[in-house]
Amino acid sequence: VQLGLAGDASKTTVSSSAGSGAGTAGKVAVSSGGAIALGKADIETTAGSSTATGVAASITLTAANGAGALSVANSTLNASTSGTQTAGDVDLHGSEVTVGNSTLESATTGVGLAGLIYAKALGDFSVSGSTLSTRASEPVSAPALDPGSAGPVTLLAGGTLSVSGSTITSSYDGTGAPGGASGFPGFVSLDAQAIDLKQTAITTTSTATDAQSPGEISVGALAGQGSEGSPVGTLANTVTIDDSTITAARTDADDLDEAATE
To answer: What pLDDT score was predicted for residue 1?
Structure first.
């Protein structure tokens, strides 16, 4: 399956949306018996309903049931909500996965939750010049409400996971929520036989009155769920970090900051 080419004058667009008075937005799933390549494409799901709470509008790319090559280049995968419906997950499954000059995001600007980003390669996994993020920020229609939480970001590889010139983040901004925010960012977990980070920033941030703790960041552990939503698992064989930052930070509205940087 090929969606868009690098030399195209405009991007190929696949989208699903629902407005504030409508029902749930639909899912977008791309699957094939062989390889999948996005050369210049936008895939978006937008949930705007103020009443719908149905199944999240996810974006899923599956190459040969996870056994085919998957490439995402010069493209955007964006699942978002501005209402009550949960934003969709962004899921990638392939044998060898490549993400280059692209944006993968699940976000909420409503009371619904942001989804997660989950990408798995049976072999090697490469990310370059890209942004992968889950984000929760103040509801645009009612700034005084507490936004839903942001989901985790999980990258798995059976071989080498290489990330260069990229940003991986999960963030929560509930600054306008009265009486303290109840939401939180997700964790970020990277697991592979070998992990190589170069000129990359990995962050989780929580900003609000009486902000919740930032999500944990795990580099080299198998993604899982502990008693408090923490990533748990086994260590990678080798981890190389070069000219990169790993930051988990909490900022309260009263300017009391807690941050940990490596």
So the answer is: 93
Query: Hey, how many other C-beta atoms are within 10 angstroms of the C-beta on 151?
Result: 30
pTM, full prediction = 0.86
Residues in the chain: 262
Query: Which region among 160-164, 218-222, 243-247 has the lowest average model confidence (pLDDT)?
Result: 218-222
Question: What are the φ and ψ backbone dihedral angles of 144, each rounded to 5 degrees?
Answer: -80, -10
**3-state class of 11 per DSSP?**
coil
In tens, the pLDDT along 173-183 reads: 776 555 555 67
Q: What share of the chain is helix, strand, coil (3-state, %, to 5)?
A: 0, 50, 50
> Could you tell me if 94 and 70 are in contact, meaning their C-beta atoms sit under 8 angstroms apart?
yes
pLDDT of residue 197: 96
Burial zone of 210 (CB within 10 Å; 0-12 exposed, 13-18 middle, 19+ buried): middle
236 has pLDDT over 60 = yes
Q: What are the backbone angles phi and psi of residue 65, rounded to the nearest 5°?
A: 55, 35
Which element (helix H / strand E) includes 87?
A: strand 87-94
Helix (H) or strand (E) holding 135: strand 131-136
The answer to whether the beta carbons of residues 190 and 235 sit under 8 Å apart is no
Q: Which residue is associated with the tokens 């309260």?
A: 252
Distance CA 212, CA 130 (A): 28
Surface-to-core class of residue 63, CB atoms within 10 Å of its CB (0-12 exposed, 13-18 middle, 19+ buried): buried
Mean pLDDT of 3-17: 88
Query: Measured between alpha carbons, how far is 183 from 207 in angstroms, rounded to an integer?
Result: 10
Write out the two tokens for 196. 């190589």
For the record, the structure tokens of 69 come out as: 């090559």
